[in-house]
Amino acid sequence: MLRRFPCSVLVALGLAAATVLPGPTAAQSTATAAASRASDRGSVGSPAAAVDIPYQRFVLGNGLTLLVHEDHKAPIVAVNIWYHVGSKNEPDGRSGFAHLFEHLMFNGSENFDDEYFKPFERAGATDMNGTTNEDRTNYFENVPNTALDMALWMESDRMGHLVGAIDTAKVDEQRGVVQNEKRQGENQPYGKVFTYIAHNTYPVGHPYHHTVIGSMEDLDAASVADVREWFGQYYGPSNAVLSIAGDVDAAKVKAEVEKYFGDIPPGPPVDHQGSWIARMSGTHSMEMDDRVPLARVYEVWNIPEWGSTDATYLDLVSDVLSTGKASRLYKRLVYDDQIATSVNAFASLNEIGGQFMVIATAKPGQDPSTLRSEIHEEMARFLAEGPTADELARVKTGYRANFLRGIERIGGFGGKSDILARGQAYRGDPDTYKKQLSDVAGATAADLQKVARDWLSDGVFILTVRPFPSFAAGASPVDRAKGVPVPGAPPAPSFPAIERTTLSNGLRVLFARRDAVPVVNFRLIFDAGYASDALGIPGTARLAMGMLDEGTTNMNALQISEREQELGARIGASSDLDASFVTLSVLQENLDPSLELLGDILLRPSFPSEELERQRKQLLASITQEKNQPITMALRLLPGLLYGENHAYGNPLTGSGTEASIARIDRARLQKFHDTWLVPNNATLVVVGPTSMEELKPKLERLFANWRKGTVPKKEIGHVDAPARPTIYLVDKPGSPQSLIFAGEVAPPKANPDEVPIQMMNTVLGGSFTSRVNMNLREDKHWSYGAQTLLLDAHGQRPFILYAPVQTDKTAESIREALGEFRGIVGQKPVTADELSKVKDQATRTLPGRWETSQAVGRDISELVEFGLPMDYWSKYPDRVRSVTLEQANAAAREVVQPAHMIWVVVGDRSKIEAPIRALNVANVRTLTMDGKVGSD
User: Fold this and answer.
1) Which of 149, 364, 635, 889 is the most exposed place for a label (fewest CB within 10 A)?
2) First-to-final CA distance of the chain
3) CA torsion sign, 902 to 903 to 907 to 909?
4) Are residues 582 and 572 in contact, defined by beta-carbon separation less than 8 angstroms?
5) C-alpha 731 chain-centroid distance
6) What is the pTM of this model?
7) What is the pLDDT of residues 735-774, one digit of tens each?
8) 886 with 836: CB under 8 angstroms?
9) 6 near 62, Cβ under 8 Å?
10) Residue 779 lies in a domain
11) How many helices and strands, by DSSP H and E, does the chain display?
């Protein structure tokens, strides 16, 4: 469950100005707890009643939550700021990002571009630090009360004025620091253990599945643009808690915080994951070797989150088991049986879930299996008996004593400012500690026994770490100075023979035999696609094909889905620019009933009205998403600019049409599309699998006996002339941390005599990782995560496209560099012999693996059908590639790459990119709305 706390909620509640929310008194917060326990726990005193950290809470107009606790015992102030973001907020591919950013926050801000610690050291600050965990990032310091202004200025400057101070050098520097921190940690004995634990106790997709430190690969991928995007998303005031404790006056602190923080924009809404306890079942064991002196056993159970009563009880259970020499595990394993050098049990508690761990280190030479056995015996005894009265009293007293020792301090870990901030950030209640103390005070032996049975009786991950043996490498006979061995000639690719026949209704059938697995793949290709929408309503082809499996005259959508699952079949329908497809992948043993299901879907769709309305809503939602995602926005806009609105290729390349066109499509229109285009004389069926044409043809004749020919309209694919001069269209996406650069022009159709030289040329220019464009923008300049050029296959003139997402402040420079590559390949930097040799080798050496699967073979036969290529195209393809000359490759560049006639679409923050782009003076510059409306120059 996601809990959302957008800053707009504060405005809706009338909190435009700071609101004072005083904390409750100790009596108020404990009275209810005491009363609720009286009936079932008897007259139990509540020590928590004597503990109070009084505070005042303010919420600024920009959403910043301020907590102020006055403690006048010493002239110092603790400043503790919690940003509600940690490693659990990191998307795939960006592990370690929260921790990396924590480091960057110490590297200077726009108005103090120096080491962050300098003014604090000069002021006599203590307890300075910043930390990151799964759920939050915090920064804290204790300063003399005369230095509070300085501390607030510094904290507010890095909250509100950091982006301009972040550059590549700082990111690279701190990336190196963090990576060395990771190396240092992993180089310690048992240093990789917690990575294994995270991966094996939390499922993929769970926010705690990866560690806070992250992976080397993800850290390497972090760019300045990523850093700025992260800051903008998570480091706004509305996602922060500022906790101040010490020798201060609350009203004055509020005024000072307003002064320094009040002008900082609130930041966007942030989703916060609710409780997600990844309860395990059974026993999952794993062993690893490491360079450690002693074997060690880790046992881990997933348990509830911090602040819950069960979590607090489990904290007490861990103390019964391992705190003190008289605790159960220590006494048994270390003191009595002397099989372990140490043993520890603890509850590691986080915002959305926790873990209960037992860690035992074996004595030298001790088999760790003995440790596991005795741990299990003691755990079983606790589950059966619970704690004794003495054990319960001891751990309750210890819990309260540790808490009281901690709150003597105003700052640092476990100090009063830290306790208040944690409760506010995780639970929305700074007084959460009172609930925990009350839970501890009222806990009974039965409570602890029950919670242990509930959470520790099943679902354990056991990791055993063993000392790595002392292996040694032998002598090598390899002379590595000779360099990388040159691969031999690749095996000749073998494309299967294609058999052909035609059914009595005119359906052409192509068959290729593949016997690797007992699966048969069918692919029907219809000459329709998005281009057919030019004769109807944009979006019809996509919607009609998507509706085929939503109901037939015999079955509804759910019945169709259930039947697919029963048969182990997969049926799909889709379109591209020139063709529409219906596919079937079926187990050979279920061939006949699966073909019957395919026939029902293909020949008898009912296009039910209720399903049409559901699909219409989904498609309209997709259009909205397309307009808000830079890449799909550009795919919607570029075709109309390249071809014109009335061209068959002029509609959005997503095939989704427009809101207006989708609203006009009714059931009759879908039926007309089906009856017009999905007819046998407009189709070819490609079949690949372990069967034969002799077996297939009779089945297909029976299946399609009533499928009649139709009159198929001719799609008009008009010729397009190149524009007189290039134009750059700017699409405004305010606040975007990146710009997406699309450049396009029309190139020759797929079926042209120079196709293979064109492919080789494009691979050199932008069609591979080591291509010119990508090496320039990504590897050399570090402005893009990846840039490429590509040719979209089509019957008519097809789009040749540059795709380059780049950091905002390098948008104009990236356009200049891309233009330089285009001009170079047709001018002073033509394709070289070395480049051509490399891409020819790449193209031929990858062919044997290209046709590994039946689906891949079917896909490439389908390509021959769709674009009218000869049936021996793939058999002769290797020779065609090898025969491409340098002159042909460079002639292809001059034919395809026309920098003087390109259409550019750039999606980004116009306020930041327009002036630099206009200053390039390389093209007309016009604005464009996400709906395709063109503005003036």
Assistant:
1) 364
2) 48
3) positive
4) yes
5) 25
6) 0.58
7) 888 899 999 999 999 999 999 999 999 999 999 888 999 9
8) yes
9) no
10) yes
11) 34, 26
